[in-house]
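quick one, 403 residues, struct below
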Amino acid sequence: MRATSERIDELTRVSELRGIDDTDAQADLWDALFALDRWWFIARGELPDVQPLVVDVDGRLMVLAFTSPERARQHGLARGLSEEEAGRLLALPSSGFVDDAVARERTGVFGVLFDVEGKGPYAPLGALDAMRGFGVDRQARRSSDASASLPPAAATPAATASSATPPAPIPIPIPAPSPVGPDRFAPPTDAPVLVVAHDGRRLRRQLVGSGIGVLLALALLAALVTWAITSTALLWIVVALWLLPTLLPIATFSEYVGAARRRGRPSLSVHASAIVIDGSVVVPWDSVTRVSWVDGPAGNLAGGAGRPMRRLSIIARLFAIGDGKRLVNFHLRDHDEVRRHAGSEGTTRLVDPTRATPSLPADAAHAYAVLTDALGSTDFAAMTVVLHRLVEARGLGWSRAAE
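---
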């Protein structure tokens, strides 16, 4: 079926109804987008330097792409452009745009957003090539499965002419054995297909919010000390009890300062041969049996209840502090070997719950990447779509983990 704007509208509605967990719906939508001969853009700039319109969407720079020239023109008018400005359009081959996406990403643009009836799908520029490759592989698997399901006469009609002669045996390719030993755990040298790093804008909010928390805690401690000096000695007990709550915002602020110092080291990078967590723990793909993820809602700070604590929790989330729980688990078939090669770094990124609960499945042991501070819920959802496709392309399991 030829991809059209109306067909993509329909697929967009289906993907929204089924949700982000339905990989087939998401993949059908993006396959249709990649099948378009060209993507349309609102042109900005003058010849010879004409570029697609880039807008800020929730703090991210996004290229606005359209599935037809009329939709691009209508959107330009809706943005307040004149008839002449809205009519200046740029048509680029979809394949060429994907090929150049990484170079465009280096200019500071995060992703591409399709304006389908006022809202549409979007994806990071750096993930477009992997998403297109996933769609090609998916279609090839479907074609192969369809051929295998045909009856022998339909699948090989020429074979009836020489049915008396048995067909020559077809050699079955035997895959080369996977490399074993320390080489499997050597840091990958190829370019990653997916990189997750701490968002700069989010980190600045966290530093400001936790810094304010430190100042408030210290100010209250100073007030209590002053009051204790000028009042009864029993208040020193209150001062002593307040020391621990004062240390908590200091520890939080220190964590974000450490994240700022590690800006050059991604929290998670996915390569063709392995996954690297925090730039140090290497998990070979052939050690992974399945991948699970957690995107839990934020609860009240410190587990507190009541209206005042809820208000405090909301204020903290404005600074991206205590706004949920997000992590990815890579379940392992050889946890002990992965831990041995990870060394001391593995103590905080590998866990084996089967030691305490033997009834759990063997691959309950896993390596995990904590992305709570690095990504907000929207960016984490976009990341899971790309990661899901990479995982499914390898034939591994994928599920949402219990929080």
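The CA atoms of residues 60 and 184 lie 36 Å apart.
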